[in-house]
Amino acid sequence: MASSIELVENTQPLETNNDNQLQQKLLLIENDHYLSKAFFINGDKSEYQTTKISTGEVLTQELNSYLVDNRPNMIVLDIGFADSAQLLIIRDVRALFDGLLVIVSNSDSEQEHMDAFKLGADDYVVKPIDSRILMMRVKALFRRQNNKVNQVELASLTVGEVCLQPKSQKCFINGDMVKLTTFEFNLLKSLIEHQGKILSRDQLYNTLLKRVYNGVERTLDVRMSQLREKLTVAGMKHNQIETVWGQGYMFSNTTA
Hints:
By secondary structure, this protein is of the alpha/beta class. It folds into two domains: 4-151, Rossmann fold (3-Layer(aba) Sandwich), CATH 3.40.50.2300; 157-253, Arc Repressor Mutant, subunit A (Orthogonal Bundle), CATH 1.10.10. Helices cover 37% and strands 23% of the residues. It contains nine helices and twelve strands. Helix 7 (182-193) crosses helix 9. The longest helix has 21 residues, at 131-151. The radius of gyration is 20 Å and the shape is elongated.
């Protein structure tokens, strides 16, 4: 089934004390309007930057690309009356997304609850549910996540003219910020953290895409090429991402 991406609402800050919530990006995945009504009709329209996607039981390439190239803080996924096969959409989402994942379902099956959590859900909500309770659960997940982040101060990673700030997911080349997708940032971070060591495609697929490299897929190679081009255009000269044929990739500092 084809998917469609619809920007339902992109809110702007209205009050200073709401800035933290307004910066949170939510992705709603559903086939009806249950989530849309819960998030947009009940007085919560100004709280989050929200995108809605309609999709079938499996992730399409369009949705795959969206998850890789965008950075939602939370996904709320309505799986309706799910069966074991349909639940695997959670696994597919988790292969590309490591943020908060809330499952909304018509089923109160204990087995489905357990399967959803095993596949990577952070919360499981059974319909019907009062929209105010749903909002409170969303806020509670964000609050717990923020408390964890605030307890750990992540240091910058600097090699040559490249500086990464993991907490804000910002990349700087010679002090100038370079816009990277979430995947590109995490790819570069993995390479820098293992500077001077070869990372195989198997390792990178497992770390970044949470799946096994099948020996044919070119996703990593294409995005590696895009990352290299961005870094080169930004002025990176004293670092390079080397292709070690038959083994993988390695980040090196040529001035070291």
